[in-house]
Amino acid sequence: MKIICVANQKGGIGKSTLITVLAGALSADYGYRVLVVDADSQQTLAGVRLTNDQPSVEQERLAGTLAEPAFPYALESVGMGQVYDRLDEVSDDYDVVFIDVPGRSDDTAMIDVLSGANVVLVPVGASDAERLATISFMQLLQEISRLSREQGLDFQFFGVHSHRTNLKEEKDMDEFTDALGLPRLLASLRQLGCYKRLSTRYSYLNPAYRRAVGADASVEAEVRALCDELIARAQLTSELVA
């Protein structure tokens, strides 16, 4: 089981969006058994499933039109201090686990969750506030990476643009992080409008869903590129697929 934590100490930078895009595609289209753990006190992902998705599931169930399974991946709310206790219980049930964590990095529970992951994905932005928050957070991850290497543990981290717009500031951010030796994924998400309508039921690789949210043809390509690069960089090999 590969554990992927999506984190940044700057709020509103696209953590939940990135998780829903990746979890939906990897489970529905790539065949991985996926669990999403919502450990963020804001409970964004749990709220999306309960408020946005569950009512439509119940309507379809009553109408007899529900296609099972209703959701492509499991989603659980777990407190920060209980994350790995829960994952120990289900370690044989899933291939990939995504963990959504609070937007802070100054407490022991957060550092413990980050240190226990195989991969940390850091959504990055181009504003001064986003840049400063991301850089300081990646410095923390560099230290966790150093300690993990000393202990022979599997740990990687990558920056990823979750709302890229080709601004000059983003190119400056890329050059700056590259100069610091901070790794980043080359693939990114660009279609801001369609990703704002979060759902835990559908994959953006589903043509009907893309049409429903007004996504153009380029969305399939960028989501697939992001999934393919994550599979390669995180070593989610074909042997993991059920």
Description:
With 242 residues, this protein is α/β, with parallel strands linked by helices. Helices cover 46% and strands 13% of the residues. The protein has helices at residues 15-28, 44-63, 83-89, 108-116, 128-150, 168-180, 192-195, 207-212, 218-233; strands at 2-6, 34-38, 74-77, 96-100, 119-124, 156-161. A six-stranded parallel β-sheet has the order 3-2-4-1-5-6, with helices on both faces. Strand 2 (34-38), helix 2 and strand 3 (74-77) form a beta-alpha-beta unit. The mean pLDDT is 87. It comes from Hymenobacter guriensis.
Briefly say what this structure is.
The chain is 46% helix and 13% strand. It is an alpha/beta fold.
Which features would summarize this protein structure in a list?
about 240 residues, alpha/beta, globular
Strand-pairing-aware structural class: alpha/beta
- Report the biggest beta sheet as strand number plus sense, adding barrel if it closes: 6 strands, parallel
Estimated share of beta-strand residues: 5-15%
Give the low-pLDDT segments.
none
Q: Helicity, in percent?
A: 40-55%
The number of E-state strands comes to 6
Overall form: globular
In DSSP terms (H or I, runs of 4 or more residues), the helix count works out at 9
Distance between the termini: 12 Å
Integer average pLDDT: 87
- C-alpha-based Rg, rounded: 17 Å
Biggest sheet strand order reads 3-2-4-1-5-6
Order of helices and strands: EHEHEHEHEHEHHHH
